[in-house]
């Protein structure tokens, strides 16, 4: 069994060796996610992602302007989006969604 100092050194070495690679992947993912969000805003349609284990649905700010009378149940059927920055029903807070219902 390794002692505390050996474990800490191994962790530090591993971190220094691989953290930059991870950061590059995260930067690429962030860029792609920003591009997806921009497309969502441009076209006024929501999207869902499995990028992390948090609730990752995005409702564009432009959705209310582009589709002011859209039935949210219909949007749910088409997009699998369940929450719309809602008080559990109407779009209240666009953007990244967190379920509080």
Fold and architecture overview:
The protein has 101 residues and is mainly alpha-helical. The protein has one domain. The protein is built from 3 helices and 3 strands, in the order αββααβ. The chain has a 3-stranded antiparallel β-sheet, with helices on one face. The chain is elongated. 11% of the residues are buried. The model has no long low-confidence stretch (mean pLDDT 77).
Question: Helices, strands, pairings?
Answer:
Elements: H1 4-43, E1 47-48, E2 57-59, H2 63-66, H3 72-79, E3 95-96
Antiparallel strand pairs: 1-2, 2-3
Q: Which geometry do the CA atoms define? A: elongated
Low-confidence runs: none
Rounded Rg:
20 Å
Largest sheet: 3 strands, antiparallel
Percent helix, as a range, is 40-55%
Rounded mean pLDDT score: 77
Distance between the termini: 48 Å
| SSE run | HEEHHE
Give me the count of strands.
3
Task: Give the structural class.
Answer: mainly alpha
Number of helices: 3
How many separate domains? 1
Can you list the strand order of the major beta sheet? 1-2-3
β content, as a range? 5-15%
């Amino acid at each position: 069994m390794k002692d505390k100092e050996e474990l800490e050194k191994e962790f530090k070495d591993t971190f220094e060796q691989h953290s930059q690679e991870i950061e590059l992947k995260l930067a690429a993912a962030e860029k792609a996610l920003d591009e997806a969000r921009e497309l969502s805003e441009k076209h006024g349609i929501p999207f869902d992602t499995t990028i992390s284990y948090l609730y990752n649905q995005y409702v564009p700010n432009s959705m209310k302007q582009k589709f002011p009378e859209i039935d949210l149940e219909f949007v749910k059927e088409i997009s699998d989006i369940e929450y719309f920055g809602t008080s559990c029903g109407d779009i209240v807070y666009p953007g990244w969604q967190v379920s509080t219902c």
